[in-house]
Amino acid sequence: MAPTDVRGGGPRTQRTAVTAESVLDAALTLFAERGYHGTAVSQIAAALGVRTPSLYNHMTSKQELLETIVRRTLDDVHAEFDAAVAGLDAPADQLRAAVRVYARRHATHRRQALIVNRDTTSLPEPALSRMRQRRRDHETATRAVISRGIEDGSFSVGNAGLASFAILEMSVSIARWFREDGPRTAEQVADEYAEFALRVVRYRP
Amino acid sequence: MAPTDVRGGGPRTQRTAVTAESVLDAALTLFAERGYHGTAVSQIAAALGVRTPSLYNHMTSKQELLETIVRRTLDDVHAEFDAAVAGLDAPADQLRAAVRVYARRHATHRRQALIVNRDTTSLPEPALSRMRQRRRDHETATRAVISRGIEDGSFSVGNAGLASFAILEMSVSIARWFREDGPRTAEQVADEYAEFALRVVRYRP
DNA sequence: CATACTAGCTAACGCTCATAAGTTTGCCGT
DNA sequence: ACGGCAAACTTATGAGCGTTAGCTAGTATG
């Protein structure tokens, strides 16, 4: 049946190599699709064309996969936020830039976004608290931009917290519907959402 | 130890009755907290102070619990939408009313909202397709209101679909952070979000 | 007072899960 | 040519899952 003998010990030769990164990538796809608890390790193995125990040559546990995915994603979010607002002074410019990168990320990294939003709570302590804190930090930073805009009069919104939640979460939801082959590019969607954000805070130049 | 003999056969007398509804309520709490796949039937039983198999006197399967929760919630969403827009003509009034009830629901029915958003995909076909369709119907109806507002000139937004997604999903996210004992009531939050919605579509009276 | 129903219980089943242990195989550097 | 390592394999383990079966004790009905 099989064109080459694919069973038995020894490294694979005819197949794309299984590596720590390829395991993570397969987990990324499956966790995003069926959730962490809804995904069996055996399904990750099957996606890579390998028996289940072979995975443990490239990972230490299922939980660690989830933690790595969440940690990396939150690290990236923070780095992008910092890079986006650096060098900008006006709150409107900062908010536009921050929402743009955040919204774009949720179009370009859908799987990561879905997992972080759906399955972070499946992490064991103390990782859970650490990750929650990192998420809060990002929200707080966004809120601070809005607060500064309210103070200097360029924004006009009752409560900075409510607005920052609304803005961030509407961006998050892009991951739910965006399609790479859809009618709009990630950049276009990001620009549009950055505009939405400025309207929510009632930006007036 | 136990003040009354609580073991052995026979119905409980000293405890609040276990009913189909109380099972659903316990499932609601646990599914919302840990997710459908993350919740064991034994945990639902424990929450009710009962052994696991006893639950099956009040339900037929774990999956049916999820399906009931999702179906009821989506039914309610539709009914509320219809009731909210009925009798209103202006797109702005309709959008405000529709967002108000949708946002309020996500504050007052947090558990249902979290489950629908997180675990609908765990439903087996054909229920999954049915529920997805019902969700799409609600989005389409909201989009139609926005489109009418664009046509009659009271709204000014590039794409009705993008706007309706953003508005609905920012409302959904209320379920993530709202606390009943927080600084704002559900009504206040709903009013604020209805305002956000009108800003997103650039409503000008 | 007998009967039937309700709603608990214990026990057990068949599965699947994540993970461990130990074995086999092919390639690479010497 | 060969020894060792990397990475696959098979097999196994113990725990937990959802669910069924069969039993028992109170409660309501006649």
TrEMBL record, chains A, B:
Domain annotation HTH tetR-type: ranges: 17-77
Pfam families according to UniProt: TetR_C_24, TetR_N
Alphabetical list of SUPFAM superfamilies matching this protein: Homeodomain-like, Tetracyclin repressor-like, C-terminal domain
Keywords recorded for this protein, A-Z: DNA-binding
Residue ranges of the annotated DNA-binding region, renumbered to this chain: 40-59
Alphabetized GO MF terms: DNA-binding transcription factor activity; transcription cis-regulatory region binding
Gene3D superfamilies per record: Tetracycline Repressor, domain 2
Top-level division of the source organism's lineage: Bacteria
Name of the protein: Transcriptional regulator, TetR family
Organism for this UniProt entry: Pseudonocardia ammonioxydans
